[in-house]
User: What shape does this take?
Amino acid sequence: MFNQQYQNYEDIPNVQDRLRWCRHHMGLMQKEVADLIGISRGHYIDFEVGYVDYYPKEIVDKLAALYKILVDDLLDDYNRFLYKGQGKMIREYRESLGLQKKPFARLIGVDPNLLRAWEADQKRMNINSWEKYFKNLIKA
Assistant: This one.
């Protein structure tokens, strides 16, 4: 039934369904994919059923190579933002506005310490924060 839902890869709206579509089209089982990329079957299942909203760079690179697709084609906007370096992207945007950290933090309505942690990649931004502060500002 899943394969009938999406005829083309481009029609798939989320990462978990893209992963499932690629796996089905390669004729692989979840355990086989997990073994090939070096994670447990349970961890891979979490990716496919959407129990996670973040896909680590090292795993994404292995999945994209296995499925022979570009990382950009596999990930959604949020995960592309994280993959390409949230700190770098926030810093570049802030600097394009000509703002230092504190004025920029005030402008977007976050604590300056949190902004510093995001820019230094010391704290991963969650999807809710990304949607609230950066979804419409920074394109990955």
Summary: The chain is about 65% helix and 0% strand. Residues 90 and 134 are 8 Å apart (CA to CA). The radius of gyration is 17 Å. The chain has a mean pLDDT of 92.
